[in-house]
Amino acid sequence: MSRTATEIATQPDCWRRAAESAAACSGLPEPGERIAVTGCGTSWFMALAYAALREAAGQGETDAFAASEFPTGRRYDRVVAITRSGTTTEVLDLLRAVGSAVPTLALTADPKTPVMDAAAAVAVLDWADEESVVQTRFATTALAFLRAGLGAVPGLRSVAEAAADAERTVAEPLPDAVVAAEQWTFLGRGWTYGLALEAGLKMREAAGAWTEAYPAMEYRHGPISITAPGRVAWMFGELPVGLAEDVARVGGDLVARTDVDPLADLIRAQRLAVRLAEDRGQDPDRPRNLTRSVVLKQPGAVRTLD
Predict the structure, then answer these.
(1) DSSP assignment, residue 119?
(2) N or C, where is the chain less crowded by C-beta within 10 Å?
(3) How far is it, in rounded angstroms, from Cα 99 to Cα 177?
(4) Which residues contact residue 247 at a Cβ distance below 8 angstroms, ignoring those fewer than 6 apart?
(5) pLDDT average, residue stretch 264-280
(6) Residue 302 and residue 284: Cα distance in Å, rounded?
(7) Are 176 and 232 in contact (CB under 8 A)?
(8) Is residue 148 within a helix (H) or strand (E), and if so which, with residue range?
(9) pLDDT greater at residue 286 or residue 293
(10) Where are the beta strands (DSSP E) in the chain?
């Protein structure tokens, strides 16, 4: 079993621990605060998911930005940054630019990195750190941590219930049609759009697969043209009315699980990425063109796959 596959399988326990840690964290956003969440790559997609979750829960206006695109002139009550490595250049630059003017919280896996000094408060999720280049468990654990900090949200499973669902998706067989497909389009609505983006990224990173991701209601406005026999449309969360009929009409295979939490369903996409890499003779632990840390030409600058 690859290291990536081993780390994927540990997510249910990581989420449970995240929920416990969130209950003891004093730097989480307070209801009513106007906040911004930031990160790079996978961490940005988790920021998008959390921002949508928090707003839907009625806890305050919440924006999400890639760290490199953060509008530093905009006023927020708090800034939350997600960085697995704690060394991501864009995140560190942003936190230093914000300084003490705004309360900041960073989520990281490594307590021996510059982010410990760059943020006012730091939540260290070191039990969810990874040896793999491709992020899986740290990203979902960070989202589970922030999600648990929202408390009970009507219509949303608790993190404990999501972890129970994850126990199933870690172990169940992947559908043959999904494994054999040549193309995958991931869809989501609200907070699950961030999960759709992340699923597509995992498939590209680990297996070099042809994937796309869109808001579900945008699927009919162009993206459906790529769906055909041997291609998959994968919906995270509740299926919009008429979408199943649209996918069937163009001959595609629809994946839509409403019996598990969407975050648990993301585990299936992670597992699929590993399976495809192995089937194609690629090493998911050492993906093509990627390293855990990329050194830029500028002296001292480091970018990481966060």
Answers:
(1) S
(2) N
(3) 50
(4) 224, 227, 233, 253, 254
(5) 97
(6) 23
(7) no
(8) helix 137-148
(9) 286
(10) 35-39, 62-66, 78-82, 104-108, 121-124, 183-188, 211-215, 231-236, 253-257, 293-295, 302-304
Tokens of 55: 């707003």
Residue in this structure with the two tokens 């590209």, named with its chain if needed: 204
Angstrom distance (rounded) from CA 241 to CA 234? 15
- Residues 210 and 229: their CA atoms lie apart, in Å, by 15
Cα 168 to Cα 177, 183, 200: the distances in Å are 19, 25, 21
28 with 105: CB under 8 angstroms?
A: yes
Between 287 and 261, residue with greater pLDDT: 261
pTM for the model stands at 0.95
φ, ψ for residue 259, nearest 5 deg? -95, 0
- Token digits for 148? 């648990």
Nearest residue to 184 via CA among 276, 82, 257: 276
Sign of CA dihedral 77, 145, 116, 9: negative
Residue 291 banded pLDDT, cuts 50, 70, 90: low
